[in-house]
UniProtKB/TrEMBL annotation:
One family name in Pfam for this protein: Ala_racemase_N
Family membership: Belongs to the pyridoxal phosphate-binding protein YggS/PROSC family.
Organism from which the protein derives: Sphingomonas hankyongi
Keywords from the named record: Pyridoxal phosphate
N6-(pyridoxal phosphate)lysine, modified sites: 44
Lineage summary: Bacteria, Pseudomonadati, Pseudomonadota, Alphaproteobacteria, Sphingomonadales
Tagged with keyword Nucleotide-binding: no
Name of the protein: Pyridoxal phosphate homeostasis protein
Function (record text): Pyridoxal 5'-phosphate (PLP)-binding protein, which is involved in PLP homeostasis.
InterPro entries attached to this UniProt entry: Ala_racemase_N, PLP-binding_barrel, PyrdxlP_homeostasis
Length: 226
């Protein structure tokens, strides 16, 4: 009987080094400084011990999609690791703004004035200033979060008039199509509005995103699964 072949398991540190290496290689190809690309580890649906392993390997930026899940999982992790910063990458309801500003250092999903107003109000109360990205519905899809392309200027101006720092533009391209044209389009819109930051790229496409100017990539699967 054949013995089971031992599969070499990649550790969290191996996966982190591999993703960082890919970011560095893509940045180099594009003539960019890899230090200009923030890696956000997307920890939605991951258990605390998996997250701890990445923190132990040196990862400090984490992203969650849901306020409720983040609230149940993160307070003890943040208390144990004060240098770790949490990013909100999912759709946000205005009635969660108070919790969001306390929990998240960066919010990638601001896509309407009413949400921005709620965040500004709650941030003032909580005496904090989370950075915000304006999320753009870059594929103009019905069910997708993000503002219409024609509304970017209005939202960017509103963030610039607010006390919250503008981190840049964020987008999630349509599924199952080549994402690069959408990344390029978002970069063009950002230039038009003098915006520097671009939150684009996930496990399947972060190298392309870095080559097209990503300043933040949001990577889940490639950091948490072999
Ligand atoms: C889940 C998620 C990611 C990470 O996706 P992976 O393919 O697992 O890397 C990035 N951005 C957003 C907005 C997500 O919801």
């Amino acid at each position: 009987m054949a013995l089971p072949i031992a599969q070499p398991m990649m550790s969290a540190a191996d996966r982190l080094a591999s993703v960082r290496g890919d970011i560095a290689a893509a940045a180099k190809l594009a003539g960019r400084d890899p230090a200009g690309v923030e890696l956000v580890a997307v920890s939605k649906s991951r258990a605390s011990d998996e997250i701890e392993a990445l923190i132990a390997a040196g990862q400090q930026e984490f992203g969650e999609s849901r306020v409720q899940e983040a609230l149940t999982k993160w307070p003890p992790l943040l208390a144990a690791h004060p240098d770790v910063r949490l990013h909100c990458i999912g759709r946000l309801q205005s009635n969660k703004a108070a919790e969001a500003v306390k929990l998240f250092e960066t919010i990638h999903s601001v896509d309407r004035l009413s949400l921005l107003d709620a965040l500004v109000r709650e941030a003032e109360k909580a005496r904090c200033t989370p950075r915000v990205y304006v999320q753009v519905n870059i594929g103009e899809e019905e069910q997708k979060g993000g503002c219409a392309i024609g509304e970017v200027g209005k939202l960017v101006d509103a963030v610039r008039r607010s006390p919250l720092p503008l981190a840049g533009l964020m987008a999630i391209p349509p599924l199952d199509v080549e994402p690069s044209p959408y990344f390029a389009l978002l970069a063009q819109i950002a230039r038009r509005h003098d915006v520097e930051g671009l939150s684009i790229g996930m496990s399947g496409d972060f190298k392309e995103a870095v080559m097209l100017g990503a300043t933040a990539v949001r990577v889940g699967t490639a950091l948490f699964e072999d």
